[in-house]
User: What shape does this take?
Amino acid sequence: MAGSTMPPVSRIAAGQRLFRVHALSRGAHWYGRKDAQWRWDDPDRRYGVLYLGKSLVGPFAEMILRTPAERDILWEVIASKRFSTFMTTRALRLARVHGPGLAWFRTTSATVSADFDPALPGTPYEATQRISAMAHAFGGLDGIQYRSRLDSDALCVALFDRADDAIRLETEGCRLEKDWVRAILRPRGYRLIES
Assistant: This one.
């Protein structure tokens, strides 16, 4: 561990809305732990992680804009996704894995933003999953706050399942509106393609 002291902490107050974009086939309230395949998952599969955003932009970018070289986004792909909202029922304490938290965890923004390449042995997710396990070892932390690798203005949250009591599902399975999607895609240089 970087030291016995607590890493830099970001707080989210009670009564704040958090967002999730997810597949239509998967419910909003899903803490994955089956295969440890995502960025902040527990490498040992002991705890689950729910991926959220402080705005809808972060989870949208993380789910839809995963391949920046592909500039055309098919509406049918977006239509197969839903967004849901959660309300915090108490304050969240999150390990800050951006700003000074990068140095504390002995990492860089490049490492925590690295893309997953299943063809390469020793994927970059090993580093982020190690950081997740370190943060989880601090019992007073509810998860991790990090910047979206696809829109660094957007702050995201990897919430540990032990903090499930800190959120309440507010809306589930909402459709992403075409006008909103176009407004997000246009300044980023993407085109929405309708079939």
